[in-house]
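As agreed, record copied across for absentees:
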Amino acid sequence: MDEENAPAWLRDLPISVLQRRLQRGLRCKVGPFVVCFQGQERSLAERFHAHYPNYPLVDENRFADVKLQIRRNPTLGRQRWTTRAISLEDGRVFTTFPVAATLAHIEWSMNWAVANRSHHFLSLHAGVMANEHGALILPANPGAGKSTLCAYLMHRGWRLLSDEFTLLRDANLAVHPFPRLIPLKNRSIDVIRELVPEAHLAPPIPGTHKGTISHLRPPDVHLRAMHETAVPRLMIFPKYTAGAKLSISPAARADCFVQITQNSFNYTLRGEEGFRMAVALTERVQPYRLEYSDLPEAAQAIDALMQEAAA
């Protein structure tokens, strides 16, 4: 294959070509960002081919918003054969990890870079899904079931914008998609396997600081639409409680504003503009609190709330 005329999608590159591209620096479009991945090993190319097949490639000369260099750990002597390290643009080791945890640390490193660099957006720590009526924003604390809920909705008629970042731009509050692998943790892995048998889950990674993780790959349709923004219409604060009956209640707008500011990565840095955008978002969305234990029941309730908000 002529590498200069390589296909536009990562999945279409043979492993040998993909490995050579990684050695030079493989650039992919991930939402509004260009991410450059660099590494030498064939096993890394195989991992990318398996878990990032549907991301579009961009020209090797494009500026990269994030650069991740994945290599053997240079600080551990013999253990460099069983551990890996990721460096950012300055070449210094950013994180080290066992080989089996490579996928998790690639994702976490991208999260860190976006959270600390994307200040042209008002960036919220919240999942965000969309349908024909608009965007649903899901701010939540760890353990509230946000990622599991996003994973289920993604396979039941909703478009994944992100399970981690809500990226708002300018006064019109358009949400920019940043669709990535969804990291399911511990019991959520089995829940999604059972309820969504068609889900494409990576092999579990045990022993991380978040427990056992398995990454869910978004279907191709979600990545092909990652240039399409969505208008916020609904904000739900979800809380998973084992055995709980479904409970939905309107949230006070004052509480909604507080949650927006507290779940933002850069609200303070955005200054007055951040305040104005947070106020505008509070006024734009219909806010609710949702407690649930049954995913299909929760999804049905969310569908109804979105239809009501659109009306």
The chain has two domains: 3-117, 122-310. The first strand starts at residue 26 and ends at 30.
